[in-house]
Every structure is written in structure tokens, then in C-alpha cells.
Amino acid sequence: MSLISNFTASQKRTTFRARARKSGISCRGSSNRRLASENEHGQSDITPGPTPRRRSRHEPNGMKQVFLSSSTLRAIQREVESMPLPATLSNVCMVMYNSKKVLEAFSDDGIAHMSQEERAVKLELLTGDLSLSSPSQKRKEREDVFVGMCKWLCSKGSSVTLHTWQEVEEGLKEAFLLSALDDTGHKPRKYKMPDSGTTVATYQSPGRKCQSGQKSKAPKRAERLSPRRKIFSGVARGTRNVVRRAVQDTKNLSYACYHSLLEQKLGPLRYNRIYTQAVDDIDARIASKEAERSDESSRIEEVLARAERERLEKEARESAANLMRDLDDEERKIVRNATMGIGPLDDILVQEGADSVQRGSLHTLQPRQWLNDEVINYFLKNCLAKRDEKLCHNNPSRKRSHFFNSFFVQTLFDDKNNDERLRGKYNYKNVKRWGRKVPGKDIFNLKYIICPVNEGNVHWVSAVIFMEEKKIQWFDSMGGTDMYRLNGLLRYLKDEWNAKKKGQGEFNEDEWELVRCTADTPRQANGYDCGVFTCMICDFISKDQPLLFNQNHINQCRDRIALSIMKNCAIE
């Protein structure tokens, strides 16, 4: 027995490592241990490993630099110009790998500059291996490489402040090879068409340069293929050669004869695999392009919709400013004396027939005060109703509107009944005679029926019956809706019809629409301006104006209401 056979396994490994280190070979890992074996004489046959590759000057810290074409650089430049400068290189890199446009430009450039073999569909027909490397997978790989390089730059934590695009380019050169930016994005070159000899200007990819003295290449093979040969341009090289030999001298064949000949040469199984895979690949590309166009169109629609909303909001603000003019000095004096004047609170400052307003009620028109029913009812009946009469006089085709006071809905639903079982229940008999007080004594010949509503003595809202449109809508500055009262108002119309127009047919409830409080109803930002919002909603609707006011106009609206009450007419 030889001496080497008596060595233990530990001694063998120690001897092997010593000899490997002497020869410059690393012994770490199972793959390196398999490079050496001992022969029967105790010698080790050490196979030297490949010489370590010398680090390139383009590899920062052992990482290979990534080439950025001019199209990608332009996308980066647009993103940098849109961000506030000065900024650090880390901030720029974060913007780069979070930008969808930059990632698309980088991945699209990689797909566009692939060779024909790289774009070919990887099918092994003989072995049945149908594994593919789709364009979407290649795009994802390109994006991952780009994001990785950007995050590597961010991890360095550079705090150098960059002020211009040129400084940003210098900072990116540490991890990227940059193409020269010009007007077109690529370096122009020329080539002659093989048939006509016509010189055509084209643009050479930055990653592919023609060698000196060598003619520029003609258009890509895929562009020269006839339409029927393009179907098979994506299959593996071996299969392409078979197809090419099969279709020689078939230029005059019809499409059906052409495929019949292919099927005879390749066999049904191979032909079906090739054709099916080629068609699926084309369908996938078409679907991808359609998805991209759909995303682009949706983004365009979103931008246009946002611009339209901004335009409408601007017009609304301008219209609101024009609708509510500033008061002059004399009018401000009248408002100040009415809302802040000194004297007994029960003094009557204004009166019209049986209706009047006391000093204490007008004091509720001061800022941050809750309006009472005396102010709201007088404003609707003696100010808005008079203006409506004037509008109808100037326009005879316009129908009159009627403004119920706040007690109408309260009485219709018997809110003051002492019997708790009947309180809040609909009772038409309580308001059966109220319809005689409307203009023309016929509520069905009106334009609007406006009803202010006091909800539990804590909140003012309004319900408007649009007689011509046949709808009943709820307006609440807090955004709520009382469907029970809306249904009660519809029932009131039905009972009123049956009581006074029964001989003219049945009242059709299905023609009427109950509308909840909509999103465009002005909203209050506190708990005490609901009465002012109710008055202004009735004001704007009664003169056919959109509800363009908001919380910023409320103090101005308080002055308008006070001045209208003092003058017994709605001011413009």
C-alpha cells in the first residue's frame, strides 16, 4: 500500500489546498475543488482556471456601464428640466427610475437595437421545447438593469449639488455610457437601395458603428421580406433555412399553394407548430401595441378632463364674482345700521303687510350667527317673490314661482303635534288650503315651488319642486338628504291633483323624479351658515342661475340679505 493511501481525508485536503495556492488557484467552492484530483502517486493534476478578467475602464466598482442612447437621454433631460434644480445626483436618479417615460424609452431602445437572432422566437421544433423569450420579458430585463444602476448611484449618497443639465450628464457618466445628443437623436448615415441605387438618408443606431472603409448595411432583412415570408421570420435559424429552401422559386404561387407546399416539405406537425407560434407572436405584439395606445389615449383623456374642470372652475369663480357685486358706501351704511344698530331688540325695522322683521332678527345676519325663521321667510316672500313677479312681467312666457314659508313643510308633516304617535306623520289636511295662496291659485301652473325646511330646529335646508322638469330635489349645505320628506312632497302633489284636478285624469307618479342632494351643491365649512346657504340657494335657483357661490362668499351674502330686507326687494 502506497503512502498516499494512508493519508486521511483532512490531510488530502490540506495538501491539495497548499498546492493549489502555490499555483494561484482558489480552492473555495465545489466547482474549484473539482478542478484538481490526485493520482495514484500522490500527485495532484491541477487544472489552472481561467485568467481573471481584467477590469475595464468602463466598469465602476466592478459594475459594467450601461449605454444610454440619445432617445433615452432626451427623456431623462425632459424629466430633469421638469424638476426643481439645484438637486443632488441621488434625487435625479430617483426621478429617473420612477419615470415611466424614461423606462419606456430605455427598454424600447433595447428592443429596437437587438439583432435579428435576438428577436427570433426561440423554438426547438425537433425536441418540442417551446420556451420563449418574449419582448415583454426583454423589456422587463432592460428596466431592471436601468433601475439597478440608478439605485447604485443613489446608494453612493452623493451630496454634490447639480445646477444644470451638463452637470447632471457628468454625474451620470460614472454608471452610464452617454450618447451624443443632437437635433435628431442619432448620427445620420446613407445607403443605396440595392435595386434602384437611390441614396436614402437614414439614422444609424448609436450602438452600431460601421467600420472605416466598410459600406453601410442595407435595410434589415425583416424589412425586405415579402409579406408571406415575414410570418416565418421569427423562427429559429435551422427552421428558417428549411423554410427558405422550401419556398425557392415560389414567387408566383398563390398564398394557399405557398402554404400547401410548406406543409408538404415540413410535415403537418412541424408546419402547424411554426405557423401557430408565428401567428401567436404577431397577435401578442398587436395586443401589446393596442394596450399601449389605449393607455396613452386614457392619459390624454385624463389630461383633457382635468383641463376642462379647471376651465369650468375658473369660469364659475368669475361668474360668482360678477353675480355678487360689491356694495357702495351708502348701502354699507344701511347694512351696518340694520345688523349692528343699538336699540331694543323687539323694535320693528321693516314691515310689509302682515310680515315684519325685528332688530334682534336682523342682528342674526352678523358673521358667525345662526339665522332665524323671521329673516328667511321675509327674504323669500317679500324680496325673492317680488323679483320673480318682475321677471315674469318682463317675460310674459315665463311662469311664476311660489315661495312657501318654513311652516309649510312643518305643518305638512305635523311636526308640532302634541301626540307623539302623529308627530312627524304626513297629513295633507293640514295644508289643503295653502294652495289657494299661490299665484294663479294653481300649483301645477308654476315654474318653481321653493320650500325652506327647518330640520329639528338645528339645521336649515331647502326642497325645490321643478314643475316643468317634474322633479323634486333636496338642497343641503351639509350634503344630506331626507327621502321621507321628498316622498311626502310628491304625495302632496298627488293629493293636490286629486283634490282640484281629479276630472283631468290620474296623477302619474312614475313621471316624477326624486333627486338627492348632488355633489355640486355649495357646502358650508362650519355649523352656523346653513341659513345663509338656504337663502342663497333659493335666490340663485329662482333667477335661473347656477349655484356658483361658496363659503368664501357667505359674509357678502349676509350683507346682500340684510340690504334686500331693508329695501323690500332682492338686490342685484
Automatic annotation (TrEMBL):
Name under which the protein is recorded: Ubiquitin-like protease family profile domain-containing protein
- State the family named in the UniProt similarity comment for this chain: Belongs to the peptidase C48 family.
Which BP terms does GO give this entry? protein desumoylation; proteolysis
* GO CC term, one of those recorded: nucleus
UniProt biased composition (Polar residues): 1-13, 196-215
Does the entry feature the keyword Nuclease, yes or no? Answer: no
Q: Which residues form a coiled coil?
A: 297-333
Keywords of this entry: Coiled coil, Hydrolase, Protease, Thiol protease
Q: Provide the species name.
A: Thalassiosira oceanica
Stretch list, region Disordered: 1-63, 187-225
Highest taxon, organism lineage: Eukaryota
Q: Which residues cross the membrane?
A: none
Task: Give one GO molecular function term.
Answer: deSUMOylase activity
Instruction: Outline the extent of the Ubiquitin-like protease family profile domain.
Output: 355-541
Question: Is Metal-binding there in the keyword field?
Answer: no
Q: Which InterPro entries match?
A: Papain-like_cys_pep_sf, Peptidase_C48_C
